[in-house]
Amino acid sequence: MNTTAIKNLSAAEWLWLVEGYARLCWVRACLRWAGDQWLKSRLQSTNIAPDDAADVVGLPQRKYAGMHESIRLAARLQGSSVACLPRSLVLAAMLQRRGCAARTVLGVAKNETGIASHAWVEVNGQPVSEPEQVSQDFARVTRS
After folding, report:
1. Is residue 73 within 8 Å of 5, Cβ to Cβ?
2. Are 20 and 77 in contact (CB under 8 A)?
3. What Å distances lie between residue 49 and 29, 35, 45, 123, CA to CA?
């Protein structure tokens, strides 16, 4: 792992990394042991109105990428591969905790080798730290 990335984290990113690490442990355990009902409850839409989500609790959209990167680093620290679904669930939960209308989206796409799936987070319909075409590349399997 590139230790430079960790050394260059801001104070907020360090806190996000620690929170992300703990939440990733919890989400991975829940996905493994709690079953489909737990996952379904996490994929339900948030109750925050999109108009209220632009800049809530001091977390403007430009900081979403920093939180995303902190969670990515926390996943790498876990020592084994952490798929996009647990990372997306954690990012959405952390953003929701701060008052953002974040939503985890699941999508599938047909490719040369079969079917691919991907999970990502959207705020106000915009993907967070994902290419904008991710919504066109994958057919949604979660409700908007």
Report:
1. yes
2. no
3. 30, 29, 10, 11
